[in-house]
Each structure stands twice: as structure tokens, then as C-alpha cells.
Amino acid sequence: MPDQNLSDFVKRLRREKELVEIQAEVDPVLEITEINDRIVKREGPALLFHKVRGSFFPLAINLFGSTRRMNLALGVDDLSEVSKKIESFLEVKVPEKMTDKLKLLPKLHLLSKIPPKRVREAPCQEVVRQEGNLLDELPILQCWPGDAGRYITFPLVITKDPETGSRNVGTYRMQVYDGRTTGMHWQIHKDGRGHYNRCREKGIRRMEVAVALGADPVSMFSAVSPLPPGIDEFLFAGFLRGEPVELVKCKTVDLEVPAQSEIVLEGYVDVEEKRVEGPFGDHTGYYSLAKEFPVFHVECLTRRHSPIYPTTVVGRPPMEDAYLAKAIERIFLPLIRSQFPEIVDMNLPMEGVFTNAVLVSIKKSYPQHAKKVMHLLWGFGQLMFEKIVLVFDHDVNIHDSRETAWRAFNNVDPQRDILFTEGPLDELDIAASQDLFGSKMGVDCTRKWPEEGMRRPWPPDIVMSEEIQQQVTKRWREYGLEHP
Ligand SMILES: Cc1cc2nc3c(=O)[nH]c(=O)nc-3n(C[C@H](O)[C@H](O)[C@H](O)COP(=O)(O)O)c2cc1C
Ligand SMILES: [Mn+2]
Q: Which ligand is nearest to the CA of 190?
């Protein structure tokens, strides 16, 4: 079972020897980034800094920055357990026989445990403050030298659709302007921004927003997950946890936050107000340039007596976010495959920072099938951002960069197999000549069929016969060659 809250997760990491605790005083300005960067680049442990200059609260970083910790966060030994759970729900059919109905019962029971549960008392409200420079007590980082200031980097930003009332939870960074004001960096394509747009349309000037800092690890993961608009991330978290997320009503706004949060900021975004946000050293490994974004006014801070402040640093990959994104890749694959069964596997390479490039393998069954798959990815959820899509045959291991490079370089006739198109790009893209849109490229790396206009036979792969392979394995010692 995944942990109930951040401090339990930290305790688990300690028990599992996945945590190093630092007692030396460190500076939240740049110093923590440099320490973290060296650790994360070698898939090192999570870090808990007990003395951050200027704050009484310990700071946790790199909580999710390895495959093993990602598994611990989700309470599994392997991410395939999560994919299988999703697959088994997607496969549910209307039962005809009584025995099939009985088989469905445990699943239905699990479903009933998914929706968030309201509670009255909450650890995240042990301390309630409304006066003063509320943010000043938090150990907020300045990540990189060229950053415009300090940034809250791992918030769970909670909003409601003013029309439907449906909730959204998204991780959008928040630049600190002063003790009660931050930026709200919900990008133009994201769900929080959709709620903001609808508030504007409806003439709701004061949009209520709550921000949870540090929640149970599955909720933190859900906040970065690319769920379709209208799906509550806490519902998804409940599904993954097999237990509901407990929510409590905020003190000053009409929103609910995880009762087990460490720290909560309550306040509002004035839909008429914008302010320059950035530059910020971003996921891409480049600085995102300064640009106008909405502003969040913090009116109330609630917290535990002794909260842990969670944060992360993004930058040149691989960083902690790469492991979150790899988990997303594995968990969402069955959902994509349920709609597009020709898709066999998907790989978002860390170096492609998840929006620049995707590799996909397919079971090709008609001419130009690869091109169809390019278009479907460009129209599917946050895969819409992909700048480069590479499509391979089903038998290619797309997680092996040597194999994919070899196939791509050999199999492609550039004029015939590369498709250029245009479309929206991730707001962080640095290459397009203008903001928000640009060109896209699909590369068909599959073997080409006569039906696709290939006028020469496609040559077979070179593979040694099974018989000789086995014979050589058997005789290996005889040859006097050391390793098999
Ligand atoms: C560490 C981290 C920081 C992020 N910062 C932002 C951000 O500042 N703005 C943004 O729009 N998305 C950001 N994202 C990506 C979103 O969290 C992600 O796209 C998520 O799906 C958004 O939720 P939504 O689909 O409900 O809008 C960040 C992701 C991570 C892992
Ligand atoms: Mn969402």
C-alpha cells in the first residue's frame, strides 16, 4: 500500500536506505541545486536537508529520482503492476454468466474505494496563519543562476471548473514575487489554465486557488500526470492507491485539499492581472524566457506543526522529473493501447524531455500505417506536443538506442519516409521561430512493403541459426575464450 503522506514516504525511504540526511546548513539559493544535480545524475538517493538557511522546515528533494523510488512511491515492485491493474479494468466486459459476475465483484469493490473522501480534521490545518509575509517561512529554492528569483517547484495547484465544478490538480511552478504573491505558470494548454479561461469568460474576476505542498506520493505523481481535462487527479490517485485520498475543506476558499498535506496555500488569481514570469532554468536544459503569466495571491497558509517542504529541480536531463515521466510512459501505455491496439510500445527518451521526441513500435497492417500513427499521437492528450515521432516495427526494441539508431539510419529513405507537418508545440519549446507552434516531423522507420511503393525486395535481417548458436554456447569453454 502506498504511503499516506510525505513524512511516511520519507520514513520508508530512510528504512529502504534510499535517503541521505544532511545536517550541515545549506543555502536554498543555488547550493541545493548543485548538490542535488550531482546526486541525481548518478541515480543517487533522495535528500533531506534539515537546516536550510532562513527556514525552520526541512526540505526534501529527489524523492522520485530513481526507478526504485518511483516504485516505492506507487507501492509496487515494478511499474508493470500498475499497467496490469489498468489493463484489467479496461478489459471489463458486461458479464453474462453468474461466475463472471462474481469475478467482477472485487473490481467493483475496488472502484467504490476510489473517490476522494471528505474529512473534518486534518493534519495540514494544525497551524493556520493569515497575517504577514506567509511565504517567508518556507525554504524556497532559487534553482539556477539565471532564474528570476525563487520558485516553488513541486506544488499541487487545485482549482475547480466554474461551470461543471469538476476539480483539477496540476503541478505548475510558482515564482515568488514577495511574501504573499507568486506567479502561476499554468501553460496555455493545461487544465488549470482552462479553468482560468472559463472564469474570465464568465466574468468571475477572483478565481479561488489552493496549493498543496507535499501530499501522499501517489497524489504528487497524479498532479504531474497528463489526465484528460475533467478527470479529477485525486480520483486517479485513489484508483492507483486502492484507497481514497482524504480531503479537507480549505479555511478561506471553497476548495478541498489533501488532509495529509504538509503545507497548504489558499488564495486567488485575479483573472485581469498578469505579470512577467521567468526566466527559469527549465526541463529542456535551457532557460525559459521571461513572459507574462497570471498571478497568485496567498491569503492563508495552513500547515502541520512540523512540515517537510518538498521540492525538485529541473534542468538538463536526466533530472528527477525524468523518472516521473518514465512512470507516466509505462502507466499510460495500456490506456493508449486500449484505443489504438496497433501500438506495441512507446519510449519517451529522457534526452527528449518528453515533448521533443517519442519512439513508438507498431504492428503494421496496412500501407502507410506508420503515418497514421504519427497523426494519432499528434492528436492524443499531451502527446500532441511531440516534435519528432519515430515509428518502428513491432519487433524492434525501442528502448535500445543502438537498435533504434541502426534501424532508423538503415530503413529510412528520407524523401519518402519523413513527413513534415505543423502544429502546437509545448510552451517550453526553444527551437520554433515563434512561441507555441511550429513544425513537426514523423519518421517512418518500419520496413517498407511493395504496397507502399517499394520496388525492391526488403532484405532480411542477418540472424545466426539457432543450431549454431547453441552449439557455440555449448563448446565455449573448449575454445578457451573467457566469457560466454
Ligand atoms: C517538476 C514539474 C514542474 C512542472 N511545471 C509546470 C509548469 O510550470 N507549468 C505547466 O503548465 N506544467 C508544468 N509541469 C507539467 C504539468 O504538471 C503536467 O503537464 C500536468 O499534466 C498538468 O496537469 P493538467 O493536465 O491537469 O493541466 C511540470 C511538471 C513537473 C514534473
Ligand atoms: Mn488535469
A: 1
